[in-house]
Design brief:
The protein is built from nine helices and ten strands. By secondary structure, the protein is an alpha/beta fold. The chain binds adenosine-5'-diphosphate and magnesium ion (MG).
Length: about 250
């Protein structure tokens, strides 16, 4: 571990439901500017981990420091401020069906900025361009393919220029070609916008495509982590299982 402070620092994070421990003492660091991928089985607690990082869920124990500040004990009002640092791409993109693409992408700008109409229009256009979707402002969510929905969801997450992007299964439910495009996009956004990213996935190929580091979540713990290079040589049985079966299990969510 180098001396550079972590932007996200998770210590002893625990969460149980009906006495079943889903997160059982997570220790994880994310450095500023890096892309960390958390890989693990379906139902293993990956989404739950993201919900804790963004403060949507309170842990039973442990701490989550964002830029040095423990968010687990913050009152809701202060959490709202911290959440503005984050953009999140939800697994199903979670677009508002009653709003068109423009309204979806503009949503947070109306809520959290003093932007006038011209500024909002410019930012929406900029974000749609960033995800490779020009001129689709007047389309409706039900007119979009799965991949387009994900990209609009991404544009919406980027609208407030987050410092940290969280991606929940960014390539699930889209075809392999679109998966490659989305992975490329995650890398580009990380480079161009210097965002820090946490990606959770059960898609090992995607993990290698975007991760500066990969961490494996199993039985509520981060059991091993390393660079993609280190990970390929990792002897942990579950890593071997993922590497051998990654392509086959890609479609099971
Ligand atoms: N709000 C909740 N209430 C009860 N159980 C939950 C809740 N959120 C998550 N869980 C449970 O935690 C486990 C992990 O869920 P999740 O984080 O969605 O897994 P993953 O994203 O890795 O597939 C699941 O067994 C799920 O039922
Ligand atoms: Mg999930």
């Amino acid at each position: 571990m180098n001396s550079e402070a972590s932007l996200i620092e998770i210590r002893g994070l625990k969460k149980s439901f009906n006495r079943d421990a889903v997160l059982n003492g997570i220790e994880l660091d994310v450095k500023k500017g890096e892309t960390l991928v958390v890989i693990g089985r379906s139902g293993g607690g990956k989404t739950l981990l993201l919900k804790h990082i963004i403060g949507l869920m309170r842990p039973d124990a442990g701490s989550i420091r964002i830029a040095g500040r423990d968010i687990t004990t913050l009152p809701e009002r202060e959490l709202d401020q911290i959440r503005l640092k984050f953009g999140m791409l939800f697994q199903d993109a979670a677009l508002f069906d009653s709003m068109n693409v423009f309204q979806n992408v503009a949503f947070a700008l109306g809520e959290h900025t003093q932007f006038d109409t011209t500024e909002i229009k410019a930012r929406v256009e900029e974000c749609l361009n960033l995800v490779g979707l020009k001129g689709i402002e007047t389309m409706w969510p039900d007119e979009l393919s799965g991949g387009m929905k994900k990209r609009v969801g991404l544009a919406r997450a980027l609208a407030i220029r987050p410092e940290i992007m969280l991606y929940d299964e960014p390539t699930s439910g889209v075809d392999p070609l679109m998966s490659d495009e989305i992975n490329t996009l995650i890398c580009q956004l990380s480079d161009q916008l210097s965002v820090t990213s946490v990606v959770v996935t059960h898609d090992i190929e995607g993990a290698f495509a975007v991760g500066d580091r990969i961490a494996l979540l199993e039985n509520g713990l981060i059991v091993t982590q390393g660079t993609p290079q280190e990970f390929r040589k990792n002897g942990h049985p579950l890593v071997r299982e993922f590497l051998n079966q990654g392509m086959k299990t890609q479609w099971e969510v």
